[in-house]
Amino acid sequence: MSDIPWQPRFMAGLALACLGALSGCLFQPREAEPPRSGSEVVYLPRGEAINVWGNAEISLNAIDAPGWGDAVGGEAAGSSFRYIPDSQTQIDFPGVDWASWSREQEMSFINNFYNNVSAVVANLRYEDLDIGDPSGGAADWRFTYLIDVTDVSGAVTRYGGTCEVMLRLRGSFWYIEEWIDEEGASDPDTGAILPTMGSLRGAFASK
Amino acid sequence: MRRWAWWAAVLILSFGLWLAGVRPVLADSQQAAENPDYPGSAAAQGDSAAVADSTRTVNLATIVAEPPEIDMRGLDASDSPFIQSWDWEPKAGVAAEVRRIRYWGELGSTTRLDKGAMFNFTGGYSTEDYRKQDKNTVRKNANLTHNTGAALPLATSININWNLLEDRTVNSAGNANLNRNDTKRGSVNVSKRDVYISSVKHDFIVDASIVDQQGESQGQRIDSANTNLAAGWQAGVPIGWGVTFATGYYRAHGTGQDYLGDQAAPSSSDEDSLRAGVYYQRGLWRGYVTVKRSNFDRRYLDYNRNTNGLVDTTTAGVEKIVNELEQKDAVSYEWANQFALGPFNAGWLMGHDTGLHGYSRSGVGTRDRLMDQVTTDLSYRYADQDSFKVSFGYLWKWDDQLYRDATAPRGRQINKKRDFIWEWNQHLFSRTSLQVKYSESLSQDTAENQFNENDRDRLETNAAVRLNGDVGGKFRANMVFSWREVQDLSLRASRSTNNNIKETYEITPGYNWPLSSFISIQQNLLLSIQFTDYVYSDLPQVTREDDYNKRGTLTTKVTLRPSERLEFIVTNNYNARFNATRTGRDAAGNDKYRVDLEQNINTIDLAITYEASPWLTLEGATYRTKDEKENFGRNNQIVDNRSGEIWLGGTINKRWGSENPIVLSGTARKFHAYGPNVQESNKEYWDANLVLSWQF
Question: Which chain B residue lies closest to A62 (C-alpha atoms)?
Answer without folding.
Answer: B495
